[in-house]
Amino acid sequence: MLDTVQPQQQPQTGVPQSHLAREFVETLRLAVPMMLTQLGQIAMITSDLALIGRLGEDAVAAAALAHTVYFVSFTFGLGLMAAVSPLAAQAFGAGDVRRIRRSLRVGLWVAFLISLPMMASPLYGEHILIALGQAPHSAALAQRYLNGLAWGIAPALGFIALRSMMSAVNRPQAPLWITLAAIPANFALVYCLIHGLFGLPELGLFGAGLATTLVNLGTFIAALAIAAWRKPFADYHPLAHLWRIDWPLMRQLIVIGAPISLSLLLEYGLFSSAALLMGLISTTALAAHQIALQVTAVLFMVPLGIGMAATVRVGHAFGRDDPAGVRRAGLVAAVLGIAFVSALTVAIILGRYGLGRLFFGGSEASAPTVELTATLLLVGATFFIADALQTIMGGALRGINDTQMTLVFAAIGYWCIGFPIAWVLAFHAGLGAVGVWIGLSIGSFVYAGLLILRFRMLTRRLVGIVEPAR
Known about the structure:
- By secondary structure, the chain is mainly α.
- Helices cover 83% and strands 0% of the residues.
- The chain has 17 helices and no strands.
- The chain has helices at 16-53, 57-82, 84-94, 97-118, 120-123, 125-131, 136-149, 153-168, 173-195, 204-229, 247-281, 283-319, 323-350, 352-360, 367-398, 404-427, 432-469.
- The chain is globular and about 60 Å long.
């Protein structure tokens, strides 16, 4: 059994520009499949909502409530699974096959162990929603959907762990092909189980949730099979001794991953609170906010993919004890993110009215909502760039296992600065919905700025430690 791989080395000759060019190429090679995989996940969620929409407005509202309950629980697991990537990437950079195996193994064990308590929230979603003041009828409909969704948490988290390991060894294409195959399969299965086609029972909202669970299970099994039998993954024997729980590495994964989970929950909580503020302003404000936020969510997949690639590239350099490579990987990822998002932001600004009409139509009655959506997208131009920077620099910091301070920075940027400014501008400065988005933008810029400063400080310290030794 192989216990080492060749560490990732930088060329020993050539000018520094060649190192940067290579870093750009390697980051793009990782980031593009990761972006497309994330967009594929968004496509499946969107197709689910489109099919549920055929059941009526009550079903759509119930699905929205169900997703709120589900994603609060799922986000916690998502942060823990994100820790698999830096652990495996550092092992790959150091040429340590055994640690790559161990990183995946603890990720799969954590996915299984935390999925059991995580299921409690979706399975008791109706009680939670009623306690939060939602109508009993809507809560009951949401529970039907959640009853199908809840069982897919473990395989969904397991797929993320496998995807993280595959990306860490420079092979992000396999999860992309699995996701692309899952999109039509998900659409067909959701449609058939909702309406009871081809001899299947007509299950309505429960069928939509069950279909998603079955697709999650299918993607997990496909990724597991590829990891076990396809090269280069099979050379690492990733499933060897899978029954053993590696407690020391599991503790390390939790130490790295728990702050990521809490940071994501702070971010999710901010945007949920922003929606509540919009609801206090007007129905038009809430509708415009939701559409502008949906556009932002799609756009966010681009820097998210780059941020995931930054974790891997920084992790590789950190694993091979290359402080200059760590700094270079973070810089290149940030530059790529700014370039991509700036171009997309210009496109959104130019097409903001068209995007509003796409969702609300071109009638006179919808004109105020379209106008407000376009205004929010214009204000959001600065927010898009700030949000991109924070996710990319957060990814870079994960590559060197620095996640505790990101949690502190998220609390400062989002809740100590962003939310209070949004509240004041919306209700005391008379800016309404626009004020909320200005607050979101300022909070994101503060968060991104703190992450950039943190990365610069740590990489300078790493270089300072190595240089005297030379």
